[in-house]
Amino acid sequence: MAAPEVGIGIVGYGMMAKAHSYAYTVAPVMRTLRHRPRLRMISGRDKEKVSRAAAAYGFESWTASWRDLLDRRDVDIVDICTPPGTHAEIASAAAVAGKAVICEKPLAVSFAQADSAAEAVRQAGVLNAVGFNYRRLPAVSLMKRMIDDGAVGAVRLVRAVWLSDEFVDPSIPFDWRFDRSMGATTIADLGSHLIDMATWMAGGIAEVSAQSATFVRRRSNQDVTVDDASSALVRFETGALGVFEMARVAVRRPCDFTIEVNGDRGTLVFEYPRLNELRFGDGADRPGLYGMRTIRAEHESHPYARNWWPVGQGVGYGASFVNHLGALLERYPEGPWEPDFAQGAAVQAVCEAIERSAAERRWVRVSEITAGVGIRP
Amino acid sequence: MAAPEVGIGIVGYGMMAKAHSYAYTVAPVMRTLRHRPRLRMISGRDKEKVSRAAAAYGFESWTASWRDLLDRRDVDIVDICTPPGTHAEIASAAAVAGKAVICEKPLAVSFAQADSAAEAVRQAGVLNAVGFNYRRLPAVSLMKRMIDDGAVGAVRLVRAVWLSDEFVDPSIPFDWRFDRSMGATTIADLGSHLIDMATWMAGGIAEVSAQSATFVRRRSNQDVTVDDASSALVRFETGALGVFEMARVAVRRPCDFTIEVNGDRGTLVFEYPRLNELRFGDGADRPGLYGMRTIRAEHESHPYARNWWPVGQGVGYGASFVNHLGALLERYPEGPWEPDFAQGAAVQAVCEAIERSAAERRWVRVSEITAGVGIRP
Amino acid sequence: MAAPEVGIGIVGYGMMAKAHSYAYTVAPVMRTLRHRPRLRMISGRDKEKVSRAAAAYGFESWTASWRDLLDRRDVDIVDICTPPGTHAEIASAAAVAGKAVICEKPLAVSFAQADSAAEAVRQAGVLNAVGFNYRRLPAVSLMKRMIDDGAVGAVRLVRAVWLSDEFVDPSIPFDWRFDRSMGATTIADLGSHLIDMATWMAGGIAEVSAQSATFVRRRSNQDVTVDDASSALVRFETGALGVFEMARVAVRRPCDFTIEVNGDRGTLVFEYPRLNELRFGDGADRPGLYGMRTIRAEHESHPYARNWWPVGQGVGYGASFVNHLGALLERYPEGPWEPDFAQGAAVQAVCEAIERSAAERRWVRVSEITAGVGIRP
Amino acid sequence: MAAPEVGIGIVGYGMMAKAHSYAYTVAPVMRTLRHRPRLRMISGRDKEKVSRAAAAYGFESWTASWRDLLDRRDVDIVDICTPPGTHAEIASAAAVAGKAVICEKPLAVSFAQADSAAEAVRQAGVLNAVGFNYRRLPAVSLMKRMIDDGAVGAVRLVRAVWLSDEFVDPSIPFDWRFDRSMGATTIADLGSHLIDMATWMAGGIAEVSAQSATFVRRRSNQDVTVDDASSALVRFETGALGVFEMARVAVRRPCDFTIEVNGDRGTLVFEYPRLNELRFGDGADRPGLYGMRTIRAEHESHPYARNWWPVGQGVGYGASFVNHLGALLERYPEGPWEPDFAQGAAVQAVCEAIERSAAERRWVRVSEITAGVGIRP
Q1: From the CA of C297, how many Å to the nearest CA of chain D?
Q2: Contacts of B289 in chain C (CB under 8 A)
Q3: Structural domains in chain A, sorted by start
Q4: What is the spatial distance between Cα C263 and Cα C269, in angstroms, rounded to a whole number?
Q5: Among A189, A196, A184, A185, which residue's Cα sits nearest to residue A137?
Q6: Among A22-36, A327-341, B287-301, C214-228, whose mean pLDDT is lowest?
Q7: What residues are paired with B266 via a beta bridge?
Q8: With an 8 Å Cβ cutoff, are A245 and C243 in contact?
Q9: By the CB < 8 Å criterion, does C295 face chain B?
Q10: How big is the B-C interface in CB pairs under 8 Å?
C-alpha cells in the first residue's frame, strides 16, 4: 500500500525553492516516509519564470499569486521561499488558512514581524518550522548530540564565523538584498544560522555587544541599507562566552562557516568546507594521543547517515534540506516540528539585539528586544 | 509542454539501484532535460525486498525476473545494478531486446565477458554506457578539462590510490563479493574507476606489472578467491608512468581515492575526501606564489556546476550519479553515450592484465589480453 | 677576519631563555651577521637551575642577581626573559646602565609600566626591542609584505584567534601566571602577539569592546586574578573591523593561532599549525580558478627564506626567534630596532583597553588609556 | 664541570654541511649531551667557499683537502657531506684512520661501493652511521614506536611517495647530480629515505618490480644518466606489499613525502608538509568515532619532544638533524650507532634492485644484489 500523500505548495521559485523541491523529491527515495510529498503548486510573480520552474521542479500547477495556494484544499503545507520582507505576511495568512507552514530563514526582517508570525501560528494551532537547514547536516547534528551526551563537558566558549563574498563586487546593482525592509541584514542572513546552531547547542543568549560596517554604501545610486559585515560578542545565559562574525565581503570565501565549541572537557569543531567531518578533541584521551580526531560523520550510527550512502562517500548541501524537510514530513501531521517559529523569533531577537548594539554602541540584553512582546528565546 | 518520457527499468535493488533511482529522480529537478525519466519497473530475486525497494524508489512496478523488463515496451533503458558476474548476460540480452543499456562497473568479471557484452551492443546498435560515475564529479571533470586545455602540459606521471576497509574484518562471512566468478577483484571493483579516470585523462595503458595479496584467505569455511589488495606499475602508450593501488583492507579508510597527474608544466591533484576541490600547481606562476591553488570546483564555469548550488555549498557522492545519468538522458536517444561498453571492456582488459601480471610475476602487455578479440583500449 | 662580537646577557632561564639562547647560537650559522653574539652571562634566582642553564645554553658565566649583568662591560645587550611583572623595572635599569635592551612580551603588566619602560629607553637613547617573535615567521612576514604591496587592497576585516589549553586543568596549582601583578592576562599573554601582528598589518586600533571570563576562580586556595579567556571587537583607525579572541582553556588546542585579513581585493589567511604556508585568495584571478592558493612561504624570494632550507622543508617555532634576534643583531649597534618599546607600549594600551572594556562593559577608546602619558599607538 | 668535547670534521660545505653544522651547534643547547661537539675543521676543494663556510658555520679551521681531516688528532668524528660518488672512498679512508664516521645518504652510488664502505668500518671497528635524518623527525619516530607497540597490528600495506620538482626545469645545466657515477639516481636520492623508513618500520624487502624514466635526456649537450622518476612494487619479507614512488619532476611539489602503513588493526599516515602531525586510524575505536586522529607529535611523551618546544609550537626540517646527530653524540664513543653502514648498504641493495628491475623489466630479488657479498638487509 502506497504512503498517503501530503500536498506541498511553495511560494517563490528561486534557489531556495529549487533546494526545497529537490528535497521533497529526494526525501522519499532516501528514507521511508509515512507521507509522500506531492508538489501541488508553486507561486511567483513572474509568470514565465514560475511556469518554467513548475515544469523543472515537477509541480502540477503554478500561479502568479501566492494567495491561490491558500485556497487549494490539496495543499497541506505552505513552504515560503521568498525574500525575508515578505515572510511574516505570507506565513500569517497561511496559518489563518489552516496550513502547516514552513518558512525560510530569517523568519522576518524584524523581531516584531517575526513575533507576529509566531503568534499567528500559535493562534491558528498549525505546525510551523523555520528553514534552519544547516543544523540538519549530519556532522552538525552529531555535534549537537555529542554536546548533549557530555562529550565536551560544560560549554565555556563558542565561536562561529560565516564568510561569503556575495557583496564584495561594488558593481553589483542594487536589488532587494540591499534593502533593509525586504532583504536581510548580514546579521540575519548569515548570522541567523549561526545563532540557531549556537543556541541549539549551548542554550539561550542573554546579551550582545556588536559592530557593523557597510563598505559599499551606494549601489545604482541608491543607499544600501544593510550591513556588509558585523561581529558580536555574546554572553550565553549559562555564562559561556561567544564570538560571532558574519560578512558578505570576504574575497574568495564562497560560503564558509565554522563553529567551534570548547567545554571544560573537550572541543568540537565543524568547518563547512569539510562538511562530512567533525573534529573532536577529547580531554580524556591518554596524553600520548594528544590532538583531535576527525570523525567521518557518516557512520551508520550518526544522525541521518542511514538514509544516505556508505561511510566515506559524502553528502553535499542538498542533504541538509532533505534531512530537514524529511524530518518535518516524518512528523506530519501530529508534530511537533522543530526548529519552530518560536525559535525563529528568538533568533530574530538576537539578530535585532546585535543590530541595535552596533547602532547604539553598547551591550544590549536580548530581553530588551523581546520585552513586552511575549516571546522568550 | 511537458518533456517526453523515457522508461527506465533497473535490474537489482541494492545500494547502486538506490543511487541510480536517486539520480533519475533528481536529474530533472537540477537541470533541464529533454526527456523526463520514468521509473517503470525494478527487478530482483527477493520479492519482499524488491517490492519494498520499488515503493521506496518510486517505481511503478516490480518483478522477480529481470527478463520481464526486456518484454516491457515502456522500458526504454535497462540499467543493470547487479553483481558483476551477472552483468554480461543481462546486458547482452537487453541489447538483443533493443534496449539502451546502462551497466554498473565493472562491466564484467573477465575481459572475454566484457568483450562479448561490447560486441552484443555493437551488433544490436543500441546505446550503451558503463557506470563510471566518478569521472562525473565536477572536480574530476574539471581535472580532465584542464588537462585537455594544457594546464599541466604533457602528462608524465599519474598516481592513483583507492583505499577502503570493506574487507578488513575477518569475521565478515563469505558472500558473492569474495567469489571471483560473481563479485569483482579489488582490481576491478576499485581499480576500474581509477583506470577509467586515468586513461580518460592520460590515454591508453600499454603494459603493467602488478602484485596482489589476499590476507584473509578463508571466510565461513570457504576459499576467498578475490584479492584484498593489489598494486600496479603502468606504462601509458605515451610513455608516461603510472602507479595504481587499490585495497579493501585499509583500516579507517572508508572509501578514499586520490588521483594526481604531473605534467611537464603543472600538477593536478584530486582527493575524494575533499570532493568539491581540485588542487592545481601551475609551473607558470610567478615564483613568489610558489605552491598550489585549491580550486573550489563549483564555479558556474565548471563542469555540471550550473545544475547545482552556488559556489562553496558543495555536492556529495549522489551528484556523480545525477551528472552521469543526466548526461546520458540528455543524449537519449541519438547518442553517443560515454563511457561506453568499449571503454568498459578496455578497462577490463587492463584489470585482467594486472591480475595476470600479479599471477605470473612479469610485465604484461594489455594487448596480450585483447589480442584476437577485436577490442582495443 | 672574524666578525666582531656582541656580548649577550639574559635575565631568566626558563623556556624563553632557552629559545633566545637557541636563536643566538643558530643565527650566525644560518645567516651572515656582522656581529657574532657571545653568551656572556645568564641570571636567575635559583642558583642550581641557573648554573645548569648556563652550561646547557652555552653561557660563560651566571649570577643569581640580574643587576650583575648591568655591571658587566662585556654585556652589550640585556635580554629579559622573566615574568612580565618584572620587565619594566629590569628594562629601565638596563637602559640607565646604557645597555641595548630586548624584552620578552608583553612589555609589562600595565600600560603605565610599559610606558615608563619606553620612556626610560628613550631617555637613555639605547636600542630597544620587544619579543614579538611571531611576526618574524616567514609566512607572517610574507603576509605583511603582501598587504603592503596591495595584494588584498584596502583592509576591511581582520580576525585573529589564539587558543591554548594551558589553564584548562583546574588542578594546576597557583603560580605567578595566575597572579595579575606578576603574570599577564590572557589578553596580554596571547593577545599581545595578535595585536602586534594585526596593527603591523592593518594600522592602529582606535577602540574596543570586550568580554572576559575566569572559569577556574581559585587555585591552591588563592584567587586567580587573570582571565582564562577574552574576546574583543576592535575598530581600526582606518575604519576596518576586527575580532580578536584569546583563550587558555580550549581543550586540545595547544597553541593554535589564526590571523585572516579580508581586503576589498583579496584575502590572506595564516594558521599556525601550518606555519610554513600562507593562503591567498586573489580577487583578480580568473573566475575559473576560484579558490585560494596555498603559498609555501619558503621560496627564496620570501622573507628570511634564504637563511633557511630549500623550499618545502619547513621551519619551526625556533626560526621565529632566530629571524627576530638575527635581524636585531644585524642592525646592532646603529639601529633602529623593531618592534620597539613604543610598539610594545602601544600594544599594552590596547590590551589594557580590552581589559577595561570587559570590566566596564562599554566601548573603550585606546586613547583613554594613553591620554596624558605621551605614548601614541 | 663542563662536558668533554668531541672534535668534528666535516667534508663538504654545501647545504648538507650547513644542516649538520646547525645540528652540532644546536644539539647541546636543546638537550643535555655528555659530549659537547667542537667544530674543528671543514674541507672543500673551493678555497674561497670553504673558508667562508668555515667562518659562517663556526669551524676553527678549514682545508682544501679532506685527507687533512684524517691527520688531525683533535678530529674524532668525520662527517661526510659530499656528492654520493665520493662517499665510499672518504668513508673507508676515515675508518682506516680510526675515525668515527657519519656519512650522508645514500651511502654510495652502488651496492658494491656501499658494501666496501661497510666492510671498511667493520674491519676498522669504528662507529659508523648514515644520514637518514628523516627517521628522526618526532612524528616519524613516533610512527615507528607505535608500530612496534602494536598500534596497527600486523603490517600489510606500505605506501611511500616522494615528490620534488628539482629536475623539472629542462634548462637546468648539467652538473654532477645528473651524472650516474657521482650523483645519485632519484631512486637513491629520494628513495633511500623511503626505503630506510619503510624497512625500519616493516622489516626487510625481499623483492621488487620497478620502472624508471628520464624525461629530459640531455642537458648542456651531455647525456643525463640518472632517472627523473621511478616507481616500484615491493614485497616485504613478511609478505606485506609495498608501493614506492620517487620523482624529481613533479611541478610545485617541493619536497613532499608521505608514508602510510596499514596493518590488520590500524592505519598510520605521515605527510611531510604537516611534519609535526601523525594521523592514526585505530580499528579498535568505537564505531561512532569512525575516522582518524591527528596526533600532535610534540607531546612530552613523544620521541625527542622534551628537547624541543611546548606541544603545538612545531619543529622544522632542522630538528631532524639535531635529533639525529644529537643521538649519535649521546652514544659516543661506546655506541652502537644507528642506522649504521650495514643499514646504509642494505638500503643501497634495494635501490640497486629497483634500478636493475627497471632496466631488466622483471622482478628482482634483493638477494641477487647482495649475494656473495656478505651483507644482508
Answers
A1: 11
A2: 280, 293, 295
A3: 5-133 (3.40.50.720), 134-311 (3.30.360.10)
A4: 12
A5: A196
A6: A22-36
A7: B282
A8: yes
A9: yes
A10: 48
Which positions in chain A touch B311 (Cβ < 8 Å)?
254-255
| Chains within contact range of chain D (3+ C-beta pairs < 8 Å) | A, B, C
Q: Are B71 and B61 in contact (CB under 8 A)?
A: no
Res. C4 pLDDT band, cuts 50 70 90? confident
**Mean per-residue pLDDT of chain A:** 96
Nearest CB to A314: which of B30, B275, B308? Answer: B275
The C-alpha angle C103, C107, C109, rounded to 5 degrees, equals 140
Q: Please name the amino acid found at residue A39.
A: L
Q: Does residue C135 sit in helix, strand or coil? A: helix
Residue with cell 646603529: C334
- D231 and B233 in contact by Cβ < 8 A? yes
Option in C157, C252, C267 nearest A229 (CB): C157
Q: How far does B123 lie from chain A, in Å, by closest CA?
A: 36
3-state secondary structure of A7: strand
Q: Across all residues in chain B, what is the average pLDDT?
A: 96
The sign one gets for the Cα dihedral C88, C89, C90, C92 is: positive
- Tell me the helix, strand and coil percentages in chain D, rounded to 5: 35, 25, 40
The verdict on C270 touching B (C-beta cutoff 8 Å) is no
Residues 6+ apart with CB under 8 A from D66: D11, D43, D82, D90
Inter-chain CB proximity C291 and B292 less than 8 Å: no
Whether residue C28 and residue D298 make contact (CB cut-off 8 A), yes or no, is no
Identify the CA nearest to D212 among candidates D228, D225, D230. Answer: D230
- CA distance linking residue B280 with residue A303, whole number of Å: 35
B310/C contact by beta carbon, under 8 A: no
Contact C207, C235 (CB under 8 A): yes
pLDDT mean over A88-92: 98
The verdict on a CB contact (< 8 Å) between C294 and B289 is no
- Report residue D112 as a C-alpha cell: 658494491
Chain B residues whose beta carbon lies within 8 Å of the beta carbon of residue A325: none
Asked if A299 reaches chain D (Cβ–Cβ under 8 Å), the answer is yes
Instruction: Answer whether D192's CB lies under 8 Å from D347's CB.
Output: yes
Q: Cα separation of A186 and A255, whole Å?
A: 13
Amino acid (1-letter code) at residue A155: V
The reply to whether B213 touches chain D by the CB within 8 Å rule is yes
Residue of A158, A215, A238, A252 to mutate for C, most C C-beta atoms under 10 A: A252
Say what the alpha-carbon torsion angle A242, A246, A250, A255 is, to the nearest 10 degrees: 100
For residues A81 and D174, give the distance between their C-alpha atoms in angstroms, rounded to a whole number.
66
Q: How far apart are CA B314 and CA B28, in angstroms?
A: 19
Per residue, the 3-state secondary structure of C292-326, as one string, reads EEEEECCCCCCCCHHHCCCCCCCCCHHHHHHHHHH
Say if D284 is an interface residue toward chain A (CB within 8 Å): no
pLDDT digits (tens, 9 = 90+) for B263-321: 999 999 999 999 999 999 999 999 999 999 999 999 999 999 999 999 999 999 999 99
Q: Does the model's pTM come out above 0.80?
A: yes
Any C CB within 8 A of B280 CB: yes
> Hey, is A232 helix, strand or coil?
strand
Distance separating alpha carbons of residues B194 and B109, to the nearest angstrom: 17
How far off is chain D from C255, nearest CA to CA, in Å? Answer: 5
Q: Chain D partners of C26 at a C-beta cutoff of 8 Å?
A: 22, 25-26
How far is residue C207 from each of residues A262, A288, C343, C350, C376, measured CA to CA in Å? Answer: 27, 43, 17, 8, 13
Q: How far apart are CA B89 and CA A157, in angstroms?
A: 61
